């Protein structure tokens, strides 16, 4: 009994003391969870003492993980009692929450680095700026930038909605704040980020807290599943695409092509100022691999010169926009490449715009109404 582990004919059990040791919590905490019905040991030792079965251990793991992410016990009870979520669904949800927290931490590191550079130059940082950079308003500022610049572009939307065809029920996976959701269909949204869900406008489609890799819907529940500029954020893009194929009769995905030789040079920003962009997509699946996963064909999605959706490539004919902090904060690329690469790129672009070098290199863009910068629509 020293190990705290009891092996019976059918299943294994663990004593309360051993579980407390493994979980890094006190026996008192476990008794509290038992008392409020959160995690109750369901087995008995040979001596008649209560013990934890494998299912109890799994539930405890979920409870402790949500607790360490800052959830209250009442919220945790609702999460772990959700009948639509199994262990895999909880793991995907926890992974999404951790990635969201990591992204927030990255944003804060970027903010700290920015203030350190400002102070190193001997410049004053006002109390208001300090609070905006590091205080409670940091994430509100990031969110405001996203909603202010990431809006549905009607020309891109027309291509996406044409691909939806006559579908009446639509699942929008990785829905974010709801851009490109068609108003004339019955839409269900899926979004694992609480920050994004909180920014969805009143009256938007109902939104489910779930990950693309584990969609809580039966096979062929929807006419079509769509995903717009989100696949690169998924932990396992191919698994997510296959899930979309499972729950819907057809699939429409707006994504990015890294198959074409020299794809990094399609866009002057990544070619001349931000080569680190290639590293951001280093582990991204090939376009051919994504298409094969769902049986899709790919078609180009040109980016209009006055694109109203502030995606990374949107300002290809308006280079000065990339010098604006609010524009950069609305896309994840800049956080992913890090503050040093961002500062160098912005400084180089600013210098070239001031000297006229950018115009000399890219003068041929002035006559274009749209550009193929690698966006692709997968239709399956």
From TrEMBL:
Q: Which organism is it from?
A: Streptomyces parvus
Protein name, please?
MerR family DNA-binding transcriptional regulator
Q: Which InterPro entries match?
A: DNA-bd_dom_put_sf, MerR-type_HTH_dom, MerR_fam, Methyltransf_11, SAM-dependent_MTases_sf
Q: Does the keyword DNA-binding apply?
A: yes
| CDD domains named in the record | HTH_TipAL-Mta
List the keywords (alphabetical). Answer: DNA-binding
Q: Which SMART domains match?
A: HTH_MERR (SM00422)
Q: Where is the HTH merR-type domain?
A: 13-82
Molecular function terms from GO: DNA binding; DNA-binding transcription factor activity; S-adenosylmethionine-dependent methyltransferase activity
């Amino acid at each position: 009994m020293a190990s705290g582990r009891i092996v019976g004919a059918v299943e294994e059990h663990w004593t309360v003391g051993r579980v407390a040791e493994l979980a890094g919590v006190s026996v008192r905490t476990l008794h509290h969870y038992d008392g409020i019905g959160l995690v109750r040991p369901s087995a008995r030792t040979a001596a008649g003492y209560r013990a934890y079965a494998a299912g109890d251990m799994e539930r405890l793991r979920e409870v402790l993980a949500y607790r360490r992410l800052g959830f209250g016990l009442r919220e945790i009870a609702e999460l772990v009692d959700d009948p639509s979520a199994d262990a895999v669904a909880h793991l995907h949800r926890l992974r999404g929450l951790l990635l969201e927290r990591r992204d927030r931490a990255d944003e804060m590191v970027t903010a700290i680095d920015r203030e350190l550079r400002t102070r190193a130059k001997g410049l004053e940082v006002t109390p208001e700026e300090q609070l905006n950079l590091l205080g409670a308003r940091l994430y509100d500022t990031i969110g405001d930038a996203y909603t202010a610049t990431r809006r549905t572009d009607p020309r891109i939307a027309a291509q996406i909605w044409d691909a939806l065809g006559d579908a009446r029920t639509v699942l929008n996976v990785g829905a974010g704040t709801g851009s490109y959701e068609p108003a004339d269909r019955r839409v269900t949204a899926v979004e694992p980020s609480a920050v994004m869900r909180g920014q969805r406008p009143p009256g938007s489609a109902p939104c489910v807290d779930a990950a693309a890799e584990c969609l809580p819907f039966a096979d062929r529940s929807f006419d079509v599943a769509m995903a717009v500029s989100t696949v690169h954020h998924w932990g396992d893009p191919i698994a997510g695409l296959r899930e979309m194929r499972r729950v819907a009769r057809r699939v429409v995905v707006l994504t990015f092509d890294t198959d074409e030789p020299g794809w990094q040079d399609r866009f002057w920003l990544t070619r001349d100022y931000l080569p680190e962009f290639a590293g951001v997509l280093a582990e991204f699946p090939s376009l051919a691999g994504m298409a094969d996963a769902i049986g899709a064909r790919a078609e180009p999605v040109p980016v209009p010169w006055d694109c109203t959706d502030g995606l990374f490539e949107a300002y290809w004919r308006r280079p000065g926009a990339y010098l604006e902090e609010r524009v950069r904060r609305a896309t994840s690329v800049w956080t992913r490449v890090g503050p040093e690469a961002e500062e160098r790129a912005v400084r180089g672009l600013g210098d070239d715009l001031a000297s006229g070098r950018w115009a000399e290199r890219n003068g041929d863009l002035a006559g274009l109404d749209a550009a193929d910068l690698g966006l692709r629509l997968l239709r399956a």
